[in-house]
Each structure stands twice: as C-alpha cells, then as structure tokens.
Design a protein that fits this description.
7 helices, globular, single chain, 60s Ribosomal Protein L30, Chain: A, four-stranded mixed beta sheet, alpha+beta, 146 residues
C-alpha cells in the first residue's frame, strides 16, 4: 500500500518497535489518550509528549490535520505503519488512527530516544538549506571599510 500524503517522513523500521513499546509502557505507567479527537485536543492544549499517527488510515482525511497542527504547536509526532498494531499497543481490541502520550511514565527514556531519532531524520531534510547561511558573513567586508 502506498504511503498517504499526510506522512511527512519515513520512520526507520528499527524505530517502530520502540515506538509501540513506549506506548505500551506509557499506557501502564503514565497517561495516554486514544484516538484522533483526543490527540488533537492534546496537541492544541500543549500537553502531549509524543503524538503517534498510523499510516494506513482510511480515509486519510481523518488524521491528515495532525502533522500540520503538530508542526504549528511544535509538538513531537511520529508515524507507525499499522492502525491495528497501534490499537494493540494501546491495549484495546479495535484499531486506532492516533494516540497521544501525555505522561510517559517509565517510558520516558524510550520516548526521548525516539524523539531524538525523529529530529535527526527531519533535520536531515533541512540541513543543506541551513548550511549556506552561516558561510555568508557580511562582517569581514564591513571591517575594511571602517
């Protein structure tokens, strides 16, 4: 199945299991909200530690707004391949399109690693644009004129 248009970056396969595991641990020892509506509220209220969005949601419009508001609110978010596995990680018998970790509990170290890895992936796209700026320094030219 092709990735939906709302998936902003690819999550490496080696991060998928830690994401599900952090969710399982957070469900047991912290606080988690299930579903798109609850995730949206958590982002808007600025109380989410990590938003987890399934890639196989149909129709995609159900979760397409989540990456946009996450970026606006500077909230950490990540994609997982399966809404079925997301539901299982949440401890529910149905699928889930999204989840929000509000209190990570004992999963904090896993979440920190996931967020750091995702930041590297996202920054990797913007590095070529950011590098030329520091090279162009007008200061050396201004000094000889003075």
């Amino acid at each position: 199945m092709a990735k939906s248009y709302y998936v902003k970056f690819d999550v490496p396969e080696n991060l998928v299991s830690p994401i599900y595991e952090s969710l399982r641990v957070a469900v047991e020892t912290g606080k988690v909200k299930r579903g798109t509506n609850e995730a949206t509220k958590a982002i808007e209220r600025g109380i989410s530690k990590l938003i987890i969005i399934a890639e196989d949601v149909e129709p995609p419009e159900v979760v397409a707004h989540l990456p946009i508001i996450c970026e606006e609110q500077k909230a950490a978010y990540v994609f997982v391949p399966s809404k079925q596995e997301l539901g299982k990680a949440l401890g529910i018998e149905v699928t889930s399109a999204a989840a929000a970790i509000l209190d990570s509990g004992d999963a904090q170290h896993i979440i920190d690693e996931v967020i750091a890895s995702i930041a590297k992936i996202k920054d990797g796209k913007s590095e070529p644009e950011a590098k030329p700026e520091p090279e162009a320094k007008p200061e050396p030219e201004a000094k000889p004129e003075q």
